[in-house]
Design brief:
Elements: H1 2-35, H2 38-59, H3 62-69, H4 75-99, H5 101-107, H6 114-129, H7 131-139, H8 143-173, H9 185-203, H10 205-208, H11 217-251, H12 256-271, H13 274-294, H14 300-323, H15 326-332, H16 348-364, H17 366-370, H18 374-426, H19 433-455, H20 460-481, H21 483-490
Pfam family, one: Polysacc_synt
Protein name: Oligosaccharide flippase family protein
Main location: membrane
Length: 495
């Protein structure tokens, strides 16, 4: 259990700032629902579905490659080569987006809004340049600097967003800030994001400027051979996660205003599953370097199996924390002038469980990363992307964002299953499948019972009491069935 403790420690060190960073970002999104009607939030949702796609291309798998190659290559040589590569490519990619911004705006369903694409390109430019410095901090075990930069960056973004969307309009109305245009709320939000990303690069100036213009062509070729399938994986992952929001206005068979409103409701409710995605992100921050470091040990597979079991146990509880208390979560996005956000609350549990599937899939991907079969991982992700595309085109016209949320559920469930089956063939890990499936089924059954009570007209407070009882049952079952492993994990003598 000592290895599990090490992972837990790494997850805490790197995960807590990530959780705090993502949570502040979540608060920021909730603020937007209080100032933007659903149509404007639909524009934000559309634009911020585009940025992650480009981010995958801009970084082309170099972060994971950095962790992989530090095991065998001199670190300064690797850092210099990857930094030079990403700096040159970022300038080139940004230029392409900048020149093509009018066409891209039309493709995104934002005709005449090339300025938004240009501002998003600025966000991408600065975010990409921080990729390798952040990876360097993680690899060197410098969590305090990592945490400080992440938290400071989102704090700057929040302050700038409040300035542009809350304080500046009032000052403008009082005769100040003649330059301010109250009609351009979305633009100001993206400007705040871009300036915060620039500040993040300033905060990392010591790490960013530490590289030297020394480029090892042979090493770069070796890294690219390893990383390009990861880029395909990343693009497929973004298709699975973001395509629904990009394709929604194109396939929804109603007027543009209605489509943007529905998209805004979808995007806001999608954000309510953020507790699940935050925990998954925090876990990945600690798990990725941990898994590579454990790969040479004889008991590596057993360690991976234990990690999976504990991860699933924990994520089942996180799912219930979201799904059982929907009335509380939905309050956060209905405090503004537009109550329509509450119409989409029924998709939150679906997205939350789909995110749990995605987290399990991330655990399973270690088999192709360790066996240098990244291309097989790319095929799995591309297969998921095909499922996502087909189901969204099929279901959105019939079921709106409800169909899109179930498409996400099906896609991640299939990817998880296929990755497990292939992994057992090429890198067998003794996962405790009956327990994993049982814990997820228990969490789903508890939510299903409460949903039945909700449909029966049970009031607000009785529903919350039922939610607390359901969470208690889940935790009691986990504590009893895993009492020996939990005791070993908590023991100071473990490992």
């Amino acid at each position: 259990m000592g290895n599990i403790k090490k992972l837990a420690g790494a997850t805490i060190w790197y995960g807590v700032p990530t959780i705090f960073h993502r949570f502040l970002g979540f608060i920021l999104q909730l603020f937007l629902t209080s100032v933007f009607p659903t149509e404007k939030f639909g524009e934000v949702t559309q634009l911020y579905a585009f940025i992650p796609f480009c981010n995958v291309i801009f970084t082309y798998g170099l972060e994971t490659s950095y962790f992989r190659f530090t095991q065998s290559v001199e670190k300064d040589r690797l850092y210099n080569t990857l930094s030079v590569s990403i700096l040159i490519s970022t300038v080139l990619f940004s230029g392409v987006l900048f020149l093509g911004s009018p066409v891209l705006a039309d493709m995104l369903g934002l005709p005449g809004r090339a300025d938004l694409v240009m501002l998003a390109t600025g966000v991408l430019f600065f975010d990409t340049l921080t990729t390798i410095p952040f990876a360097k901090l993680r690899q060197e075990g410098r969590p305090r600097k990592y945490a400080a930069v992440k938290i400071a960056t989102i704090a700057v973004q929040i302050l700038l967003t409040l300035f542009f969307l809350k304080w500046a309009p009032k000052l403008h109305a009082d005769g100040h800030f003649a330059w301010y245009n109250p009609e351009r709320g979305v633009e100001y939000f993206v400007i705040a994001n871009m300036l915060a990303s620039f500040c993040s690069l300033l905060f990392l100036s010591k790490e960013f400027s530490a590289f030297r213009w020394k480029f090892d062509k042979d090493l770069w070729k070796e890294v690219i051979r390893y990383s390009w399938p990861l880029m395909v994986v990343g693009i497929g992952g973004m298709v699975n996660e973001m395509l629904s929001r990009l394709v929604f206005p194109q396939v929804y068979p109603f007027p543009e205003e209605v489509a943007k409103s529905e998209l805004g409701i979808f995007g806001a409710n999608y954000k309510l599953a953020v507790l699940v995605t935050i925990c998954i992100t925090a876990f990945r921050m600690g798990a990725e370097p941990f898994f590579f470091n454990q790969s040479g040990r004889q008991d590596a597979q057993q360690t991976y199996a234990r990690v999976m079991k504990f991860f699933t146990m924990f994520m089942g509880a996180v799912f219930l924390a979201v799904a059982l208390f929907l009335d509380i979560w939905i309050w956060f996005i209905t405090r503004g002038p537009d109550p329509r956000y509450a119409e989409g609350m029924h998709i939150v549990p679906v997205i939350a469980m789909a995110s749990v599937f995605l987290g399990i899939y991330y655990n399973l991907t270690i088999w192709y990363k360790l066996t240098n079969r990244n291309l097989m991982g790319a095929w799995i992700t591309l297969g998921g992307a095909v499922v996502t595309i087909v189901l969204n085109i099929w279901w959105i016209p019939q079921f709106s964002y409800t169909g899109s949320s179930w498409a996400t559920f099906v896609c991640y469930g299939l990817m998880m299953t296929v990755s497990y089956l292939l992994g057992q063939k090429y890198y067998p890990v003794p996962y405790e499948v009956p327990k994993i499936v049982g814990y997820l089924a228990l969490a789903g059954a508890i939510y299903g019972l409460q949903h039945y009570l909700r449909a029966g007209g049970l009031g607000f407070w009785p529903l919350q009491i039922a939610g607390v009882a359901g969470m208690g049952i889940y935790l009691a079952v986990i504590a009893w069935s895993e009492r020996k492993d939990i005791a070993r994990l908590l023991s100071r003598k473990a490992g």
